[in-house]
UniProtKB/TrEMBL annotation:
Keyword terms, alphabetized: Membrane, Transmembrane, Transmembrane helix
Record protein name field: DUF3360 family protein
Entry keyword Transmembrane: yes
Transmembrane segments: 49-70, 131-155, 167-186, 206-224, 231-252, 288-307, 368-387, 393-415, 427-450, 470-490
InterPro entries, A to Z: DUF3360
């Protein structure tokens, strides 16, 4: 069998750039848990800059949101703790430095290109305040998530769950998450523009600016889709939003406060002294018990998250590219280890598959490794410089990047998957259940009903064993309901917010 290096051809030998990228995906032979080298096993292409840039924007926004949620929740939950923006930024920079080097550049870039990058668990962000108030400890939570994730990946549970989820259920999940997430980002931009106030300009009088940014974004995104350049959407639309906001008079709202430098990288500073860092000290038994239901819930959410990212690869990659598709179990392994290591050195992120990287990478027809290396370098540079974080978290830039890079492609992919009437029925039930409860419970319930022929394709149960039809789906449904009851998610009107 010929190697990648032997089968590689110059881009000039193909009629179109798209054909060249297709060929690259078809000849790649990633080495799992062995060294992959540029030139021998993969190449850097300028298209890799797009998912790298998109992932960098997304993760800055995500990490900042997570750490601010922890700061607010712990300050409210504990009398001796007062944490604010400075704490959140410093912890975000810790998360961006060490995990980027170990688990983005080295793990997904060089040693296992079939494992998607370990990023952020968006659906858990709204729950962080509840986690803190319940008496949980970030380090205890990270250890439990890591252990549960490693067990699931060891027994190949992640890939099996992906295979048990039909296109109808997966499509419904994508449509709901896409629409819900898009509405959140639109509301974010509108609230930002309506709240602008400077000098003689009263709050609310600049509401037109948000509408203008959204209108131009729709036109630009449609144009890029028309010329088949959607993979440029995040940088093109985010930069355009930045320029429009500055020209429109919102420059006073963009403030640079983060200085150049390194955060404290000593784990003892963060966890060893209760008067510094998190001010919590090391976790005890009570902390682990309080963290347990949230850890179960976080890992239960991984499979539909991973499934959505792999689907984007399957829909955008050409035929005969199975070797470069992300491996769900390998991704779960990397996320589990990264969760424990990243938090042990002082971080606080809750990890999942990196959607703001994978979705643009799939659309751009690029495999994981080259973009992962570039993204890791970008994240490290941003963490050291500091001030780019202020730009990336500015509402018009952050919201537009997430809107065009994650949520609109999710809607498109979901619609493409539910063309058949049987698929649309399963998708409809999944969407309705998600509206009433939350996306995770919707996925579990719809999968159980679909695999038993109660909705969707009536012939589907004939292809499944009793374990796949009843035992696994029912067990997942019971675990999800139990975990959600334990943390009070089913008592609220809509459970959790959508993926961010």
């Amino acid at each position: 069998m010929k190697t990648y290096k032997e089968e590689h051809k110059r881009a000039t030998e193909f009629e179109t750039r798209s054909e060249y990228l297709d060929h690259e995906l078809q000849i790649m032979k990633p080495r799992r848990y062995r060294l992959n080298l540029p030139g021998r096993d993969f190449r850097f292409e300028w298209e890799d800059l797009v998912p790298a840039f998109a992932g960098t924007l997304g993760i800055i926004a995500m990490y900042s949101s997570v750490m601010m949620a922890w700061a607010e929740g712990l300050t409210e939950a504990w009398d001796h703790i007062t944490l604010g923006k400075e704490f959140a930024i410093e912890v975000s920079r810790v998360e961006m430095l060490i995990p980027a080097l170990l688990f983005v550049i080295l793990a997904s870039g060089f040693f296992n290109p079939k494992a998607n990058l370990a990023g952020n668990h968006g659906p858990m962000i709204p729950l962080i305040a509840s986690i803190a108030l319940a008496g949980a400890h970030p380090l205890a939570l990270a250890i439990l998530i890591g252990v549960f994730g490693l067990l699931l990946s060891f027994f190949k549970g992640g890939s099996r769950l992906v295979n048990l989820t039909s296109k109808g259920v997966a499509g419904g999940l994508l449509i709901f998450l896409g629409f819900s997430g898009a509405l959140v980002q639109i509301e974010t931009i509108q609230n930002w523009s309506m709240g602008l106030e400077s000098g003689t300009i009263e709050a609310g009088s600049m509401g037109f600016l948000g509408l203008l940014i959204l209108g131009v974004t729709v036109i630009l995104y449609s144009f890029l889709a028309r010329i088949e350049k959607r993979w440029l959407a995040i940088p093109a639309c985010a930069i355009t939003a930045l320029i429009l906001a500055l020209i429109g008079g919102a420059s006073f709202d963009l403030q640079f406060t983060t200085e150049v430098g390194l955060p404290n990288l000593n784990p003892v500073y963060w966890w060893g002294n209760t008067e510094e860092g998190w001010m919590l000290g090391l976790p005890n038994t009570q902390h682990f018990l309080a963290s347990l239901p949230f850890a179960i819930l976080a890992v239960a959410m991984w499979s539909p998250d991973f499934l959505g990212h792999r689907i984007f690869q399957e829909m955008n990659y050409p035929k005969n590219t199975e070797k470069v598709l992300m491996d769900v179990d390998d991704t779960m392994t990397m996320c589990s280890i990264r969760q424990m290591v990243g938090t042990a050195v002082g971080g606080g992120n809750i990890t999942s598959s990196w959607g703001t990287y994978m979705i643009p990478a799939a659309i751009a027809k690029r495999p994981i490794p080259a973009g992962a290396i570039l993204l890791g370098l970008m994240v490290i540079i941003v963490a050291i410089l500091g001030f780019p974080m202020d730009i990336a978290v500015w509402p018009p830039v952050r919201a537009i990047a997430l809107l065009v890079g994650v949520f609109l492609p999710m809607i498109e992919a979901g619609i493409q998957m539910v063309r058949k009437s049987a698929c649309s029925q399963a998708a409809g039930i999944c969407i309705f259940t998600a509206m009433v409860t939350n996306p995770v419970l919707a996925w579990a319930l719809a999968m159980f009903l679909d695999n038993n022929g109660l909705i969707g394709d009536k012939d589907r149960p004939k292809t499944l064993s009793k374990v796949d039809k009843l035992v696994i789906p029912l067990a997942i449904l019971i675990v999800c309901i139990g975990a959600m009851l334990a943390v009070g998610m089913l008592e609220s009107s809509y459970g959790i917010l959508p993926y961010l």
